[in-house]
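## Example pair
The file below holds two records. Each record gives the amino-acid sequence first, followed by its structure token line.
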Amino acid sequence: MKDEILTQLNNPAQLEKMYRNNKTSFKRSFGMLYPELKGNTIADFWHERLNYESDEINWGTSRELLLVIIASLLAGIIAKLPAFLSIKEDFFYPRNIGFIVFPLLTAYFARKNKLSAGKIAFIIGATLAGVFFINFLPDTKKSDTLILSCIHLLLFLWSVLGFAFVGEIKNNHEKRLGFLKYNGDLVVMTTLILIAGAIMTGITIGLFSLIGFKIEEFYFKNVGIFGLAAAPIIGTYLTQANPQLVGKVSPVIAKLFSPLVVVMLVVYLTAIIYSGKNPYNNREFLLIFNALLVGVMAIIFFSVAETSKTTKSVAETWVLLLLSAITIIVNSVALSAILFRISEWGFTPNRAAVLGGNVLILTNLLLVTAQLFRTLSKKAEITAVGKAIAFYLPVYFVWTIIVTFIFPLVFGFK
């Protein structure tokens, strides 16, 4: 797009059209060009326009606020269904916790992006398929496939949310990376909301206790559960209406934690050698090892989503390359451990799920690492790294479908 911007620099109408067609790409490309164009009247105007940030919080229209309030109340009502319908909590929440928030967030982005009737039908069909399938699974005690299905159903619903956010199936890497960035911003905003809510809860309970009212149980079962359900919805609305709220916090977190995680992983891998413990003969250790792997992958994804927006320093790219390379080592150890356990004790639902997940993550890591190396070798731009991640995201969606819907049938609900 950089060449197109240069060509149309003296054509304001065409620049405006390019901007409205793809705001993210236009802003990134213009940011790369502006140091060369500084001093040009039109370029200076667009620089100010693209970088203008209002000091005021945008609360949107009264209609938008009403919809957010209704969505928050609906989330709270769904969370309270066990109390309203006398459903066992240990049956309802493991299976349906994802339906408290994800469908409402999906509806928000489907409305915002004005999706076609066909795409909305797909979203509704996928969500209903998840609702009916998970709730009609046998209530078998100690069922590995049930646990795996419940966990991967959350990832399935997250993928459906991603489809509503992107608005299309074809590979639009900028929108897909925008979805990853939205997740990072949402975590930051929701955490802030929950911290504020926790402070308010403590003050409220403390004040009532001073006058002799013990409201803890009532508060947590009613006000608290509604607040927890509403937090991601309110957080989403605030981040979308006011991207400047956490727009500068998220990149700082990405820059801060990436090198720290590199150091932590090196120290941790060294400590494993001296500790004598390994994931080959310790099931719990293998589970923690894989949880670590997923967490580090999330950091890499988020860091790349931030880094791909603009040109970054060579040092930052080196940090990402080291982080990816070390994570490949961690993944390889985990993969070899699960292969060892399968060769010794055979296939189980858990081992099959971990094996498939590790293979997918390792493949993705290799693609990302290759692109980071090409970037440092001046054979590709940093945006190629983002494209590698964005291109691979649908593969995870397919895997969540397999584990959520097919594993229970293949393994006989064991």
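Second record, same layout:
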Amino acid sequence: MYLMNALRGFVMPYLALINLVSSPTMDQQDGVAYYSPTDRGGSMLINAGDGYGEPMNVIISGLSSPHILTLDGAINFARAIGFSEECFGLHLGGYMPANLGDGNGWVNQTIELRQDYGNAGIGTCLESLVGGNHFRIFVQNGTTADSGALFLAVSREEPLTEDHDVVPDGYNIGRNQLVSAAVGKTWYNEVKYHTVAQNITGLLKAGADGVNHDIAQDGIVTLLTVTIY
């Protein structure tokens, strides 16, 4: 199973990248932080299969600096807060879709980023072995809700020996760890960021109903507004 997923990893990331606008500008978007997916027929749970989902518990605001909302910009910001691309570009897991209520329907994750343990080059290989924090990115850029916001499904996972299952309370833990690393001033590759956070309730239903691994989460979604300065 892991060999099959590894082989898919050579091809699928390149197909998934088309879901992220390469260089959006603010006038290409609607000038709002985000739209609620559930108001437009979408869901705050990504499809993990078998009728279960995982929560999108962090949103990078569409009012962030425009470069943050591009693929390169999102990856560079992720590196500034301790995440990077998967080990040797191989994706050893399923591709999960989300419906952000923007008219695009169910669309696979754009990219998955993993905790890099202080080394953006090979640190994610360690995460793949011993577990840690990780997140999938989905972009809200359809014609009916073009906020440009990045919706993140964040969770802390078990090591490879436990098939990368989410740790107990892993959705809340993963979100909180990511937000803690992001808030304030960070930098990577000579790009400096200032990030502020706002907790939002009402977007995501609290509890374990329909949630993958039957792990309850508190229903809080954290909105990050990231400014390059």
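Notes on the second record: The first helix runs from residue 2 to 16. The chain has four helices and twelve strands.
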